[in-house]
Amino acid sequence: MEGLLQNTTYKLGDIVSMKKPHPCGCNNWRIIRVGADIKIKCLGENCGRVVMLTRRDFNKSLKSIVEISWRKGEWMVKQEKKKMDDQTLAKEVMEWIISIVVAVALVLVIHNYIGQLVRVDGASMQPTLYTDQRVLVTKIPYWNDENIERGDIVITKYPGSRENFVKRIIALPGDKIKVENGILYINDIIVDEPYIKEEMYSDYTETTIPEGHYFVMGDNRNNSKDSRSMSVGALPRDMIKGRAYAILWPFSDFIVIEHNEYEELA
Length: 266
Prior knowledge:
By secondary structure, the protein is α+β, with helices and mostly antiparallel strands.
């Protein structure tokens, strides 16, 4: 909105002179709001008084417009710059927030659906894996449950625990499994296990693996808490988190983990 004085318009930011000087001795005022009422601010040193006038009273009191071009000058530039700086800051903050949200979402997607790096802790998978090795775990093959095979080295959870465990899948849903005189039987067939550390000391009574469950054991059979334990048992599918693909650390141990084929069960 703007006013009219002898064919001259006044706008926000103009410096005007009033007919009656201000007590501070200055007679220059800056228009800081134009609307139904006009708000002006005294430019006197150490003054800064703000006065609100009706448009009619303002027109009566107005003596002259001292600086029409001022609204394109330093003050307006500073105000515009401040506005732009505020907008830029808000934009940068929003961009940071979006970047963080996207990064967190990406990490969660990768961790939950693609793969992760897992530290081996303990001796239960010796001689295949050792403590402090870092294993790359891939989850993509297990998007389809049919890709879960006997002999896969997997990352699992145990009932009542939030820890990760590294074990080998020994039996699938519907399989019969038993250990007798240190020998593993699956579906009444003796299974050759070249990867175990030593012969098993304890027997395991024959059991049938329930649907949707998997029987896991460590390669160090005499030093492994696994599905043979009553507190663990056969694990439901949702506790099988992924397949160990390779040893990445230390670099000197790097190897793509070999999948063991049970030819006798084919």
